[in-house]
């Protein structure tokens, strides 16, 4: 087991191609979160046009998670079999198609189908990013590289929510969906042109390639066993379930904020759409900074100085989720400024925990298994991603307030802390599968 980052940190390389790849992945996350959050901003207008209530909107918001979640394990296996570039190019085209279908919706049924399609389209994104980071970065840089794409998910709410709100106000919700469709198509051409595996990238210098490999990057290639056998082997590992369920509890709170924060500010705090979008930016901006500095830079800095890798990563995860319990404060206050303060504190803590969690699949996986572990992790996470918007919609529809929804998110976070601390164990590679242990 690796416990010290010092041994993992070779001399600085010539070239920074790996950071270009990390930036590319981060831009992709921003684009796909435009597609995800647009419905949360457009929800009041869609409710007005089609005469649907909060519970129905909750079902629409959750529909994305049904296909997104159910496909996580299959897309993880596809990524391990066919690679990041091939799977993601198909995925990105489908993101765009889902936006165009939504723009032409004639009622609940069309909207529901479009959200299911978006879930299919975006299912590979995070497992693919985690797998790509494993190939492109040494262990001592893994957390900050992961934080770049994970922080992009938070930063997308800083830029996407006010941008989409302006588009909805100016061009209507249909025009806003058309705009995100064209944005996805633009990213398709950029990704197709730029992304390669390290062994295939002509712009990667030999010095940088050696630096990446000598620092403990994931070895390219397929698993030593077939996909089904590897999956069967991995689902028996306690480490995988500790990670997956712990992360899913984080995911419940994250999905709650993603899908319902603008609606909460409009419905409970009586803000108009543009004001709610402005207030929504504040916690997401702090979350972006926390993600990069605490969940990214600080972890790599400490590991690089020789601190115990398991203790560093798990301490940041647990501290972040404990801070996330501040969500309970938002469920108690009726003051919009205090509510945003509690939400900002909660999201900042969760943001610090997220990249540390997403760096783990490539750090604990046997050869060729990072995509499958990432798929398992995000599959379980997606179950709570489905539950959060639907449960929140039910609570709001039946009680007329968001208080119970905030308290439930806090309780689920507490469960996640137990799984990360008690069940997962240390951050070390799972043994390679053999005929005797599958």
From TrEMBL:
Predominant localisation class: membrane
Membrane topology category: Multi-pass membrane protein
Domain Major facilitator superfamily (MFS) profile residues, every copy: 21-428
Gene Ontology CC terms, in alphabetical order: membrane
Subcellular locations according to the entry: Membrane
Record keywords: Membrane, Transmembrane, Transmembrane helix
Xref: InterPro entries: MFS, MFS_dom, MFS_Na/Anion_cotransporter, MFS_trans_sf
Protein name per the record: Sugar phosphate permease
Lineage: Bacteria, Pseudomonadati, Pseudomonadota, Alphaproteobacteria, Sphingomonadales
């Amino acid at each position: 087991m690796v416990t010290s980052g010092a041994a993992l940190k070779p001399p600085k390389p010539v070239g920074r191609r790996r950071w270009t790849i990390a930036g590319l992945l981060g831009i992709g996350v921003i684009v796909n979160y435009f597609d995800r959050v647009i419905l949360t901003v457009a929800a009041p207008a869609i409710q007005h046009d089609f005469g649907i209530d909060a519970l129905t909107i909750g079902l629409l918001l959750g529909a994305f998670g049904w296909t997104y979640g159910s496909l996580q394990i299959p897309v993880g296996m596809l990524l391990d079999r066919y690679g990041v570039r091939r799977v993601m190019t198909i995925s990105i085209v489908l993101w765009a198609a889902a936006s165009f279908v939504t723009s032409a919706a004639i009622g609940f049924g069309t909207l529901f189908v479009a959200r299911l399609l978006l879930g299919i389209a975006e299912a590979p994104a995070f497992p693919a990013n985690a797998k790509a980071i494993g190939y492109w970065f040494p262990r001592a840089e893994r957390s900050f590289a992961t934080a770049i794409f994970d922080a992009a998910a938070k930063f997308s709410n800083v830029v996407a929510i006010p941008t989409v709100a302006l588009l909805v106000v100016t061009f209507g919700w249909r025009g806003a969906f058309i705009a995100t469709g064209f944005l996805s198509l633009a990213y398709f051409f950029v990704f197709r042109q730029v992304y390669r595996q390290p062994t295939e990238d002509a712009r990667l210098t030999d010095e940088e390639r050696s630096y990446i490999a000598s620092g403990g990057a994931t070895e390219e290639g397929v698993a030593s066993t077939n996909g089904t056998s590897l999956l069967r082997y991995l689902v028996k590992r306690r480490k995988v379930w500790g990670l997956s369920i712990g992360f899913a509890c984080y995911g419940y709170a994250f999905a709650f904020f993603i899908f319902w924060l603008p609606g909460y500010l409009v419905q409970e705090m009586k803000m108009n759409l543009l004001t709610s979008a402005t207030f929504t930016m504040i916690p997401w901006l702090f979350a972006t900074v926390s993600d990069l500095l605490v969940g990214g830079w600080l972890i790599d800095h400490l590991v690089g100085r020789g601190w115990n890798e398991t203790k560093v990563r798990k301490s940041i995860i647990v501290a972040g989720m404990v801070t996330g319990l501040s969500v309970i404060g938002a469920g108690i206050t009726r003051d919009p400024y205090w509510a945003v303060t509690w939400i900002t504190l909660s999201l900042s803590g969760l943001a610090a925990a997220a990249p540390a969690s997403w760096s783990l699949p490539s750090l604990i996986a046997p050869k060729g298994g990072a995509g499958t572990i990432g798929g398992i992790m995000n599959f379980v996470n997606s179950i709570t991603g489905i539950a959060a918007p639907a449960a929140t919609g039910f609570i709001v529809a039946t009680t007329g307030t968001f208080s119970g929804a905030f308290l439930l998110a806090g309780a689920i976070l507490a469960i996640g802390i137990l799984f990360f601390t008690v069940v997962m164990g240390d951050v070390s590679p799972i043994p390679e599968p053999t005929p005797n242990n599958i």
